[in-house]
Specification:
With about 325 residues, this protein is an all-alpha fold. The chain has 15 helices and no strands. The relative contact order is 0.16. Residues about 1-10 have low confidence and may be disordered.
C-alpha cells in the first residue's frame, strides 16, 4: 500500500522536514529580540536575521498544506478532518495557554522577574484568562485551524488547482484594497490571505510531478514584489524556492535534517515561548555577556531544552494533553 501511495503522490517528506527545520530556527530568532538585556549590536543582528528568516511562518503554512492535503473530500472525511484539527490545534492552544498563564502568575509573585500575570478577578477576566492565547506564537494554531478547515470545505466542491489559481489572481486585488503588511509574520488579519495561499500551494505541490513549475510561483511573487515595491511578496516565495532546491539537491535536505530540527519543530514551537526562550536568554547573557554570541547560545540552549521537555512529556501518560 505504501508503494502504491508513493507512486500516486510525489512525496518529499525529507524536503518538507528541511523547510520545517529552517522555519523553526526563524521562529525562535524572530522572538529573540530582548532589547532590555541585549546590546545594541545584538539587536541589530536580530533585526537582520528577522529580515532573512521572515518567511518562517509562511514556511509552516506551506508545509502544513503539503502534509494535510486530502484527495477525495467528502462530508464524512471533512467531519473527521475538522475533529482531528480541533484535537491537534485548538485544544493544545487552549491547554498550553492556560499552562503558561498559571506559570506566569506564579513567576510574577517574585519581584526578581518582569513578567506579570494576574489571576482573574471577575467573570469577564476569567473568560479572557481562558480564551485568549498567550505567547507570541499561538495565533498560528488558530489561524492554521481556520485556513485548513475553510480550504477543506471548499475542496469538497472544487479541485486544488481551481482554488489555487483563484487565490493567485485574487491576492493582488486583495492587497490593492487593503494595505500590505510590514512584516510577513505575526497575527495581523491582513496576513491571512498570504497564509492561505501558502497553505494551498503546499497542498498543490504534494501532487506536483514537474518540480520546475515551482519556479513559476517564485517568480510570480517576486513580480508582485516589484509591482508593489514590497519585500513581503518576495519573501513569500522563499519556502517554495527552498522546496525546489531541496528536490534538486536532495543531499542538501539530508544534511539539514541531520539536526532533527524538522522532526522536533512542533515541540520547539509550542515550548520555546513565553517561558523557555526568555530564561535561556537571561542565562546566556549572564554566562557570556549581552553581545551577539549570546544570540547563538540562547538559540542552542532553547532548542535543547524544548527537545528535552518533549522527550520527558511524551514518556508520561499523565501528560498526554501536552504531547505535541
Amino acid at each position: 500500500m505504501n508503494k502504491e501511495h508513493n507512486k500516486k503522490h510525489h512525496i518529499y517528506f525529507n524536503e518538507i522536514d528541511g523547510i520545517k527545520a529552517l522555519s523553526i530556527l526563524g521562529v525562535v530568532l524572530v522572538h529573540s529580540g530582548f532589547e532590555s538585556r541585549l546590546s545594541h549590536e545584538a539587536i541589530q543582528l536580530i533585526n537582520v536575521l528577522r529580515f532573512f528568516f521572515g518567511w518562517c511562518v509562511v514556511g509552516f503554512f506551506f508545509t502544513s498544506g503539503y502534509l494535510n492535503e486530502k484527495n477525495n473530500v467528502t462530508t464524512a472525511v471533512l467531519s473527521d478532518f475538522i475533529k482531528k484539527k480541533i484535537y491537534r490545534l485548538i485544544i493544545p492552544c487552549f491547554v498550553f495557554s492556560i499552562t503558561y498563564k498559571l506559570i506566569l502568575v506564579f513567576i510574577s509573585s517574585f519581584s526578581d522577574f518582569s513578567w506579570s500575570m494576574a489571576l482573574p478577578k471577575n467573570i469577564g477576566d476569567f473568560i479572557f484568562f481562558l480564551v485568549k492565547p498567550v505567547g507570541p506564537q499561538f495565533y498560528f494554531m488558530a489561524y492554521l485551524f481556520f485556513v485548513s478547515v475553510i480550504y477543506s470545505c471548499i475542496r469538497a466542491f472544487f479541485s486544488v488547482n481551481y482554488v489555487l489559481w483563484i487565490l493567485l489572481l485574487a491576492i493582488p486585488f486583495i492587497y490593492r484594497c487593503y494595505f500590505i503588511p510590514e512584516y510577513i509574520y505575526g497575527q495581523s488579519f491582513t496576513l491571512i490571505p498570504i497564509y492561505t495561499v501558502s497553505y494551498v500551494i503546499g497542498a498543490y505541490f504534494r501532487d506536483l510531478k514537474n518540480t520546475n513549475v515551482i519556479l513559476f510561483f517564485c517568480f510570480y511573487f517576486i513580480f508582485l514584489g516589484f509591482i508593489y515595491a514590497s519585500n513581503v511578496f518576495m519573501t513569500i516565495s522563499i519556502p517554495f524556492f527552498l522546496f525546489f532546491i531541496f528536490t534538486k539537491w536532495k543531499n542538501l535536505s539530508v544534511f539539514v535534517n541531520k539536526s532533527k530540527l524538522g522532526k522536533y519543530s512542533s515541540a520547539i514551537y509550542v515550548w520555546h515561548a513565553p517561558i523557555v526562550l526568555p530564561f535561556m536568554s537571561i542565562i546566556s547573557v549572564r554566562l557570556i555577556g549581552n553581545g551577539r554570541t549570546a544570540i547563538l547560545l540562547t538559540l542552542i540552549l532553547t532548542i535543547i531544552l524544548c527537545i528535552l521537555i518533549k522527550k520527558i512529556v511524551i514518556r508520561s501518560p499523565y501528560l498526554s494533553l501536552w504531547h505535541f
